[in-house]
Amino acid sequence: MCGIAGYIGDKNTPEILVEMLKRLEYRGYDSAGIACISDNSVIVYKDRGVVSEVMDKPDRKQIHSKVGIAHTRWATHGEPSKSNAHPHVDCTGSFVVAHNGIIENYRDLKAELIDKGHRFESDTDTEVIPHLIEELYAGSFEEAFRNSLDKLRGSFAIAAISKNEPDRILIARKDSPLIVGLGDGENFIASDAPAVLPYTKKILILDDFDYGIVSKDQVILKDIQTGNEITRDIHEIQWDITRAEKEGYPHFMLKEIFEEPTAVEDAMKTLHDVEYVAKKLKKYQRIYFLGCGTASYAGLVGKYLLERFSIPSELVLSSEFRYSTVNTVDENCAIIAVSQSGETSDTLASVKAARNRGAYILSIVNVVGSSLTRVSDNVIYTHSGPEIAVASTKAYVGQLTSITLLSIYLAKELGRIQGDYLNEIIDDMHSLPDKIRQILSREDKIKELAEILSEKNIFLYIGRRLNYPTALEGALKIKEVSYVHAEAYPAGELKHGPIALLEAGVPVVAINPNDDLMEKMDSNIQEARSRNATIITVGENCKIETPVTDPMLSPILYIVPLHLFAYHMATSRGLNPDKPRNLAKSVTVE
Ligand code: M6R
User: Fold this and answer.
1) Could you tell me the pLDDT band of residue 242, with boundaries at 50, 70 and 90?
2) Which of 97, 283, 304, 583 is the most exposed place for a label (fewest CB within 10 A)?
3) How far apart are CA 193 and CA 35, in angstroms?
């Protein structure tokens, strides 16, 4: 939620900040702002709207400076408006702050500050921070900053500047991501790596309770609680800038769907890590998959895969797990946390709570060095590369690939799969990228179908067992990017209620793999057909045709046309699938 950026160096700061914000926009896009120091005063330029609407204006281009911070917002406290847009300043116009996260005790702090005579301009929680710094300032920006942090409860990634000390940006982190991009005679602050990638590949990743003093030639990191200096490793970003650009595609979502074959190949490269982790996992009596949204559906596929090998497991949504299931967790439990970003607040909180109760934590994550990886005993990276579109697509395919590998290697460890069959599955997995390319080569047909159905305002997705999660993911994607109501049900449940929604022309997307449940699926399809629903089957010899595969791998193949379908539904309805309303890519708040 929200992207923050900062720059200090000899280049023209506003231009760099705007470029950085455009690369962070997937984190929020209801308003944008920059704050710079110029001629000994703080200049704030901000408004409601996406970055280009707010920033590509002649008066903004008049601002020149060598230090500044910036923000692109996903509203939590206060509606999207100019006054609620960040950065926020104190009463004297000396201190200015951009923040990502939630200050939970802001009401109390605000009341105290108002009593002391501070004037507030916004409804945000963030605005207490510059006023706190103002209140606590006694000649040292750093001291006032650190003392302010001490008063904050909740989550924060903060960047702050002061006209009193224009040679530095102060930063801090707790439960919201923040990195420093290291340049030569210049440094960059950002919520995520794509923002700094045009300028540097070297980054420092702040840990919880770190704060820092960033000047153009130096970065000093310290511990918020002790004030002692600390060191963090320098990471080298492994992927190229082009991976975070559209490369000729009209939208990131489409580009990322076309990267799904590579997502399988990249996830397959971690076979060695998977084998290692499977050996550790085998000793646990209870396995819980955790995740939110799309990541939770990948976890649900994991549960069905393990059940195929008679290994019990559960998928629990992170937002529920942390307040209930966690009470049943102990050292006999293993948690498999699935997350693209590795920053999802509910997943992180659940993992920390389970860890406190002695559980073993394995995370399946895309973003290297993200918060989740730092609270896990082991990590399997999916290596899907940056996923910029808010709707997750290739990351899901990467997660499914890693989870499938993990399931079969755990089955091997437990003696539940024959060596020959395991080898067959691995061979089949190696053929998946080409099979996905075949599906993608038929994009036109899927586009045509989406155009025909684009006016429909309700969809039903049905699937059984391993492809019930496919139905869930297909339906979520339609909801997210097309704003069409879509329900997903296990096909056997249709007759227990949702069949009442069916009438002539209601589209029913039926995921129909060639397995032992095919006849059951056929019966469910007939039930829908008898109510004159429009049936769209997905599978071998189906309306949306997929290449032949082992049914175990069908979730990886079958989701591809459904991702494409959702994309084309959105564009047929004149919507921008990269920026769905009300959503943000990383949900770092509860
Ligand atoms: O970064 P994560 O994988 O933890 O994110 C989990 C969900 O927030 C995410 O999958 C969300 O549901 C996407 N918008 C789905 O497209």
Assistant:
1) confident
2) 283
3) 21
Domain ranges in the chain are 3-237, 242-439, 442-577
Please, are residues 89 and 96 in contact by the beta-carbon 8 Å criterion?
Answer: yes
Distance 541 CA to ligand 1 centre (A): 32
**What does the pLDDT read at residue 238?**
82
pLDDT tens-digit map of 4-15: 999 999 999 999
If one looks up domain 3-237 in CATH, what number appears? Answer: 3.60.20.10
- pLDDT > 80? residue 286: yes
User: pLDDT for 456-511, tens place per residue?
Assistant: 999 999 999 999 999 999 999 999 999 999 999 999 999 999 899 999 999 999 99
Cβ-Cβ contacts under 8 Å for 272 (sequence gap 6 or more): none
**Could you tell me which residues are beta bridge partners of residue 527?**
none
In words, the CATH class of domain 242-439 is: alpha beta
Using the 8-state DSSP alphabet, how is residue 382 labeled?
-
Is the pTM here over 0.85, yes or no?
Answer: yes
The answer to whether residue 2 is catalytic is yes
Which residue's structure tokens are 């996923």? 387
According to DSSP, residue 406 is labeled H
Ligand 1 pocket list (CB less than 6 A) = 292-295, 339-341, 344, 347, 390-392, 480, 583, 586-587
Taking domain 442-577, whether its CATH number is 3.40.50.10490 is answered by yes
* CA 297–ligand 1 middle distance (angstroms): 10
User: Can 3-237 and 242-439 be said to share one CATH topology?
Assistant: no
